[in-house]
Amino acid sequence: MALAVREIERTGPLDDAHAMAEAVRLHANPQERLGERAWLLGQRLGLEVQLAHWRDASWLLGAALTVAVLLLANGIVFAMLSDARTINAGSAFVAALGVHALTLLLWLAGLLLVGQLPGAGTRLSLGRLLLQLLARWPLAQRPHALALVAAANQLLRSSRLAPWAFGLVSHLVWTASFVLVLLGLLLAFAFRQYQLTWESTILSPAFFETFVQATGWLPRWLGFAVPEGLASLSAYAVPGPLTIPARTGALWLMGCVLVYGLLPRLLCAALCAAVWQRRKGRLALDTADPYFRQLLARFDALQPSCITDLEHAQPRSAPTPVLPAGTYQPVWAVVGFELAQAPDWPPQLLAEPAALIERIAGSIEERSTVLAALAQLRPQALVLVCNAATTSDRGTERFLRDACRHAEHCALWLDSATPPPRWHDWLDALDWPQLARVHHLTEAQAWAEKHHGHTD
């Protein structure tokens, strides 16, 4: 899902403010945050619905592929069974297992070459064909289907899981096909009389007997009968094709299809499923990719800032005013700290009756000057205005504490209607209940008017 969203965002970034905030709120692990963001955006874009449609369509297309493989790879066998009562055993063996053996060898070669050639063994895979058919399936087509296909191909290729994932689909299709072939052979041989023969222009009956004995060695272990003494039978036969005993010949052919066709595909499918189950838990997004690095940087920007130095680690208490109550002047002061340049400073409702109105950038000289002025003025009420877009840090905390020691009552106003959560988390961590929080100009004015003439 994350790779599909990346493909979609190649044409332009998506509006992901809600998804980013939810990912930060729900998860701390970077991989989980990337996945949560992608899943929320994917739901909005309809990718989840597309995947659901694919799951439904995959069964129908898988069945169609099975029938296609059955007709293409084993059509000659059924043609023999339907057109005549005499079957060339060698031709039937090759027709039933020839294409299967070739494709299986190609898949095995792809496993050996996957490190050198990432696409080896998968370009002609039935699994890749199924994925391409799903992407173009008209009954399950949505706007971003091709982005999902590209993401799936990239994920499987980068994780070297393509031979196993596509191979699983191919082996399952072949397994289903061989089940149908065996059922067809069983029904044909059970209800009709066929005669298996061997005829060749250049190969002798002795060669065929050696071939039958070699191929029938494994089926014999499973209880299948294998023709024997074929060369001796041919010595007494009239000129023409070598006739094989019908029952043993039929059992030999079905045993070969089972042992050399169905069982290898079934075992390969089980192997692919086991590898997929084992490795899919290790799948992870490449956080070194510039796209994901940028997202992680944005996640970090949404994190609450935390001071981790020694001073912050030590227990802190609320600042104590330097003068006893009742010795402060019945005036108020307003100090802006590290505020962005704005034409509406100073705020008129606070500035007109305020005894002191200052805005400083935060340098040491400016802090010293403002603190000296506050020490001389000794206001009963002090409104400190901070930039909500900045990050609260140790310097901010130190200035707030020093300033509040020179006033009887202090309030903090963040110049934003909705301050970031990191400010609230930071203020809660300070354990400073005496520092009032005001959220807009009129509230700051009401607080100042209430406290500048008030004595505890």
How would you portray this structure in words?
The protein is an alpha/beta fold and 456 residues long. The protein folds into two domains: 2-293, no CATH class; 317-451, Rossmann fold (3-Layer(aba) Sandwich), CATH 3.40.50. 60% of the residues lie in helices and 9% in strands. The protein is built from 19 helices and eight strands. Strands 5-4-6-7-8 form a five-stranded parallel β-sheet, with helices on both faces. It has a three-stranded mixed β-sheet with strand order 1-2-3. Helix 4 crosses helix 6 (126-135), helix 5 packs antiparallel against helix 8 and helix 8 packs antiparallel against helix 12 (246-279). The radius of gyration is 40 Å and the shape is rod-shaped.
What key attributes describe this structure?
rod-shaped, alpha/beta, 2 domains, 456 residues, 5-stranded parallel β-sheet, 19 helices, 3-stranded mixed β-sheet, Rossmann fold
Give the SSE map.
Blueprint: H1 2-8, H2 17-26, H3 30-45, H4 47-83, E1 86-88, H5 89-113, H6 126-135, H7 145-158, H8 162-191, E2 195-198, H9 205-215, H10 217-221, H11 230-236, E3 242-243, H12 246-279, H13 290-302, H14 310-313, E4 329-337, H15 348-351, E5 356-360, H16 364-377, E6 379-386, H17 394-404, E7 409-414, H18 421-430, E8 435-438, H19 441-451
Parallel strand pairs: 1-2, 4-5, 4-6, 6-7, 7-8
Antiparallel strand pairs: 2-3
Helix pairs in contact: 1-3, 1-7, 2-3, 4-5, 4-6, 4-8, 5-8, 5-12, 6-8, 8-12
Summarize the structure.
The protein is α/β, with parallel strands linked by helices and 456 residues long. 60% of the residues lie in helices and 9% in strands.
